[in-house]
Amino acid sequence: MKKITTFFSAMLLIISLSACSSDFDGSRTGNDTQLIMEYTEFNTTDTQDLVVEAGDIIHAEIVVEDGHLSYKIQKDDEEPIAESEGIFFSVEYDFDVEESGTYTVTVTGENAKGSVKFVVESAE
């Protein structure tokens, strides 16, 4: 009986470990003017604060090779200046910023493979 219990315990452990997947497998660069990520697996949420002056542009390039991606760009608790959910294709946008401040970029992946780039481009 002990051998059967040990066998089933070992099998359960093997099955549970093989079912685990990584939340993020890729590279990430982020600072106050950019968020750049390339990944083969993205199943989590990541954020980056960008410091933006009035008149600047936040340039976004989103490549979705597989899965879905959502993003939001928001200053404090104000209405987001940009938001999209469930993106399953590649897109490129420029977002005009009317008010200086720190804007938080939030990106969420669901079985996503691809890349994102959010870069502050100066109006000067």
UniProtKB/TrEMBL annotation:
It comes from Blautia celeris. This is Uncharacterized protein. Keywords: Signal. Residues 1-21 form the signal peptide.
